[in-house]
Here is the input.
Amino acid sequence: GVAVTPDGQGVYVANVNGNTVSVLDTATNTVVAAIPVGAGPVAFGQFIGTVSASAPAVVTTVPVGQPAPTVPVTTTIFVQALTPMTLAFIANFNSYDVSVVDTTTNTVVAMVDVEVEPAGIAVSPSTSRVYVGSAGGNITVIDTTTNTVVATVPAGDRLRGVAVTPDGSRVYAASNFGPVSVIDTATNTVIATVDVGDSPFGVAVNPDGTRVYVTNRFDNTVLVVDTASNTVVATVGVGISPVGVAVHPNGSRVYVANDGSDTVSVVDTASNTVVATVGVGSFPSGVAVAPDGSRVYVANFGSDTVSVLDAATNLVIATVEVGGSPSGVSVTPDGSRVYVANRNSSTVSVLDTVTNTVIATVPVGASPVNFGQFIGTVLVATSVPVLVQTLLPLVPVDPVDLFQQQVDALNQGDVAGVLATLADDAVLLSLFCQPCSGREAIQRNIEFQVANQFHLTLTRIGSFDINGSVRHRDIVANTAVGQLEVRGDVFRAPGFQRVVGSFLVLVRGDKITFSRITLDPSDPETAAFLAFIQARSQ
Here is the structure.
């Protein structure tokens, strides 16, 4: 193998029989040095490159009997930084969109088109996802990092209340004319339905995710659903035409807004009985509890007010005038602000919880409704992707190494992987494919081990050589939570049977959401595929 230095002043030649690398001066065309290396050096390709002085050097030593590693390859990685922000997502019933409100500035920072007549909305507490229920019967899934729609899930006609479990794994959506649908957020599919009567409306989940509370307007009840079995385990009679529902942060109480009796029912969750009934404004609709559990906020649709309840005494301690026909209400994670969606004035009123006064009014889309917890701290892309140059060295696989064991355990054509945090700013991605031969191997939602939370958006562009006994390592510095995409071409290293192909892997959270490996020609000998890419900032 032969390669030229970036400045053109030197040529390096790998001497397979001499176990050396000769260095030639291009000005005189003479050998100026001979560098002893390992046995039988093979270097096909451009094996010289420039790396950052601050980045540690990578030295690969190949044990006797192992195939020689291929030449390091330079490629490109884009790293997208993400920042946590507390946002309010406002479902606009008549304009078919969602207004994204920055709670720091009380300004609309984005608009996301959704389906017809959105009403129920919930921010996932553990993932960067927002779930919006619409009259058309679909749940629209919004990625908060980009404020784009990433999935649409059929979940029943005229959806109303929507709630997410604390771990973000399940969404419960109430259809106004049918059951409650249970959605697996990893696959965005309905995995169960729960019969809760003819007119379910509001939905709330308790803090440990074991119970879901659903209001039924026709039956004047709240149904208690066991999330382990997705069955109704209790039915509680409340006021007339219950709509909104919220759970106390300690899980001991459930608050139900009854728009037909102008009351709030307080339910004891241990006995599933009503322990108090509180008179509020006209046609109470939405209800929310402060994070510390001290206050309950009720949006009174008919009187254009918010009632503030003391949770310890179950008494109304303040009534705040807001916009026209308030329907949805939610509290910021720090408890300092309450946001109220005013349907008839197309605004959001912002309340200071210390003074119980309106301190801001935010214009949004047409007729905001917002049944559900619509405020959350999510990750947002705040900068353009950063271009990072990378160096890709290959190292041999240890037969007893964990990665090799996982490869050996795979079935034909399967793809699996491990994502491990090596340091605060570094991530190791390991992908495996046990002999994929003569066909395209495609899988979705593959189990993916996560050793620690990872934060990155990565795109790999380029091609490289591998063989059945080497792997790439992929370490991305200065990472940020997001998604990972790896693309490239794969084939055997020189001196081994050539198997040409390509691969694409998409990772989100703890799942490889999509993977494809294509090999050509159609009937080669089987080839083990292991992709590890090492990335270091230049």
Notes: The two ends are 25 Å apart (CA to CA). The first strand starts at residue 2 and ends at 4.
